[in-house]
Amino acid sequence: MTATPGTTLRILDQRDARAYRTLRLAGIQACPLAFQPDYGEACLQPLSWAAQRLSTPGDTFFGAFDGGDLVGAVCLRRHAGKKIAHSAELKALVVDPQRQRQGIGRALLAHLIDQARAAGLRQLTLSLTDGNGRAERLYDAFGFVLFGLEQAAFLLDDTYYAIQHRQLVLAPH
Q: Which domains does the chain have, with CATH numbers?
């Protein structure tokens, strides 16, 4: 699938661990408000951590590639168990800081939503740090609705931020 001209989307696997780790670290460093781990903490996570993350049962990571370079990624985390299998979470959206505002995040999000619908999921949820305006606008554009605000859940540089919890209904209940 093509995201933007010259960009293709595909599922990531353990072979992509090094590229994923590099992309994630660049994202954390450029926008610490968008990621839970501190940059220093994330640097301590070994390559094996990234490989394991990309092969976690229930998680499907989609990557955007420009040629052979990974320029964006997002995770669809399926819930296990009969009672909640209709729902999944959008996790870990990251775009190379040098490639932002080129439609890569939008293409990844659209692809993830299409895959969720094709899998018969009824809803997606996500969490993001309040004040991350670019992410808020992107999720608003796709129809994610705020359903909860967790006050003082995120601490960055001695400032507390709320965490927004959002939902996108894919199929009526």
A: 7-122 (3.40.630.30)
